[in-house]
Specification:
Helix content is 43%, strand content 21%. By secondary structure, the chain is α/β, with parallel strands linked by helices. The chain binds guanosine-5'-triphosphate and magnesium ion.
Amino acid sequence: MKLGIIGLPNCGKTTIFNALTGQSAPAAPFPNPLGTERHVGVIRVPDARLDRLAEMYKPRKTTWAEVTCVDITGFSRGISASKQKAAVFNDVRDMDAVIHVVRAFADPAIAHPDGAVDPAADAAALELELVFSDLELVETRLERIAASIKKGVGGDLEAEKATLEKCRGQLEEEKPLRNLGLSEGERAATSSLQFTSAKPELIVLNVGEDDIASPATAAALANLEDFYRGKDAQVFSLSGKIETELSQLEPEEAKLFLDDLGIAEPAMNRVIREAYALLGLVSFLTAGEDEVKAWTIQKGTPALKAAGKIHSDIERGFIRAEVVSYEDLMAASSLARARDAGAVRLEGKDYIVKDGDIINFRFNV
Ligand SMILES: Nc1nc2c(ncn2[C@@H]2O[C@H](COP(=O)(O)OP(=O)(O)OP(=O)(O)O)[C@@H](O)[C@H]2O)c(=O)[nH]1
Ligand SMILES: [Mg+2]
């Protein structure tokens, strides 16, 4: 599962990438004319449940869920060199969801591609680029299909053609494919095209470090929310600079910094959790004295497949899943007491694992 960071030049993508991954990739002071910069990193998904479980079990090791994150650069408005642009869009196509960074910080030393900082206009410009790139793809594909049909090798292409025409209608109205409401079948017929405007999307407004709670930020946020209303995208605001600093502090220092700011946790934590959900992912947990660990599965995964995540032997020799919900375990304060209270269930291979289930697989190989 890959999460891509997109946005106009100098909006703070790399800054936010660093905050998300705890890396320190160099932030570019100016637009990168080649658009070739690309960072890949790993995001650790914050999960307070793991912290509590670690307090309970005092394990030797705690392992958080992780998501791959790609900082996609050079997504400039009107990059004319088509090769470059194609490379950028190909990168976006390869993502499972995107974080779209929109600049709100006003720093005259940092060039803006259009000269002025205007979050809603910037967001609209980038969304339009996504729409245009998809439209180009749809038209090319429709031409090929028409040629095949003409040659009499159209066979099963009619369904794809109909779907693509529907997509074209939406795109010609400059609307993203995200909320076109395609059926499962229609989606499958066009999934190989990996439409950029259909990617699940989170919008992050990158505000100046002194503007986290300012009226200007509230106004910019309201404008963006207006723009995205009915477009199936969530909008957040944070300061990429502050979040980057936070991500590079030791936990104790970070706590002091957060207390100073008067907030409970980094704003990025919420963004990460939302992104995780956006990717359709949930975590089940295993807990013991050796390790407390979050395992990533696609929402709707049955117990047998979840077992296979841990080890293929556990899937092969699966007998039962011993399951307790996080809330029930916490309420009982120990697994033994949860068992006494009847909160520990034995589930079969078809049981759909839920987010926060604490599971002990019984197996026999
Ligand atoms: N003052 C101020 N500067 C910021 C903020 N966020 C980012 N910057 C600066 O803006 C410049 C661009 O930030 P980057 O994170 O490199 O932006 P980018 O979107 O990755 O840029 P490209 O990769 O070139 O498209 C850098 O010099 C950052 O230090 C902010 O909140 N306030
Ligand atoms: Mg960058």
